[in-house]
Amino acid sequence: MKHLPVTVFLFAVSIACKPVAESQTVQPRQPGASIPPTVSASRRTPIVVVAHNVLPSVVNIQTEATIRRREVDPFFDPFGFFGGGNQTYTSLGSGFVWSSDGIIVTNNHVVEGASRISVIFSDATQHSARLIGVDPDSDLAVLRIDAKNLAAAPVGTSADLMIGETVVAVGNPFGLSGTVTTGVVSALGRSVPSKEQGRTFTDFIQTDASINPGNSGGPLLNIEGKVVGINTAILGNAQGIGFAIPVDRARKVIQDLLRYGQVHRAWLGAVTATITPEEGKRLGVRVTRGALVSRIFGGSPAQAAGLRPGDVITAVADRPVDSREAFATYTASIPSGQPIQLTVVREGTPRAIIVRPTDPPRDLGLRILWEIAGLRVGNSRGVVIEEVAGKSRSASIGLAPGDYIVGINGNEVRSVDELNAALTNSADRSSIVLDVARGRFIYSLTFPMAV
Hints:
Layout: E1 8-10, E2 13-16, H1 46-54, E3 58-69, E4 85-99, E5 103-106, H2 108-111, E6 116-120, E7 126-135, E8 140-145, E9 166-171, E10 179-194, E11 199-207, E12 219-222, E13 227-235, E14 242-246, H3 247-260, E15 270-275, H4 277-283, E16 290-296, H5 301-305, E17 312-316, E18 319-320, H6 324-332, E19 340-346, E20 349-355, H7 364-373, E21 375-379, E22 383-388, H8 393-397, E23 404-408, E24 411-412, H9 416-425, E25 431-438, E26 441-448
Antiparallel strand pairs: 1-13, 2-4, 3-4, 3-6, 4-5, 5-8, 6-7, 7-8, 9-10, 9-12, 10-11, 11-14, 12-13, 13-14, 15-16, 16-17, 17-18, 17-19, 19-20, 21-22, 22-23, 23-24, 23-25, 25-26
């Protein structure tokens, strides 16, 4: 899967306004009434039935955030439009009832930075929501409201989605609650970069069902009325190109957030890169599509299974792999301890390798830092470099003890624990970017993960 050279927008509708109202005391949300018997059978189309059945499960997510605005020179802002002080903003997005005991699913970017979250049903009943957990890498968030016997949206599977099949998107675009749009599955397995989020999202469902600001977090349903995706993004400067997270990928993330409050990703210990015909020719590899194994960590499940650098992974559990992103997507949903079969091409010969992922070692991030960059660190008013390995990339660049690591992959780190966690989450990347401070200067340095 090639990255699309496009701008993808992940958003909710944001406006400056008054604080969110307090939650109302209401009865639990129940399924909607039946379609009136006066409606003829010819009007009860599958889309009508889907919309009627799912609307009680779709909610409006309203968040409140207070932003401290900096003082601005009155010469450049004579009317005070951009003056200092606190400004309260609300953001509108969508979500849906995942389970009847008060679990609501939405996008991470809908609730990111919120100090208060309200869930509003189509009949205007409103509940305060508590954030259970978020996963920025998959752009998912799980909320809980104090309500029981809710009408939960039926959850289906995205594994058997077909290009061209009808899908229905439900949400609250521009605050217009309960909006229903239809379209088809335009493509599967899309990888799209988001400049706003600073990451590439993989394995998206592409659809031409109309998705607009405020749709984020709402369900994408098949013609049977089952959730097959979570609407997330649109393509900038385009019409009819929207993206949704496949529900099969979302399911494990949601289950982990409910159980642990964070995502538990199983560890294989293999770093991969996308193989292209040009790269294959350069390396003398006959395979033209797949995930090229570029590094194996010592003591990892991949090493124990016999995987080697130079192998090309072409399938995971019989699902074709044509890129590093596809391999990472498939393996992200594998529970720790569950064996998985990889189809590997080695020296032109396909073979099956069984790998049993494990939980990442507690010090995995620091091990990566030593193996990739040749650095050991400690806590001293931040993350200070204590040792630089001779002949390492860090030594050749000129890093020295006393320098400080202040960020990784664009995110700030303030302690060794934060650095270890960030590097652990980056274990399947093709490279890491360290922000290193020396005196008044900060340098961004890239370290390839490949051997």
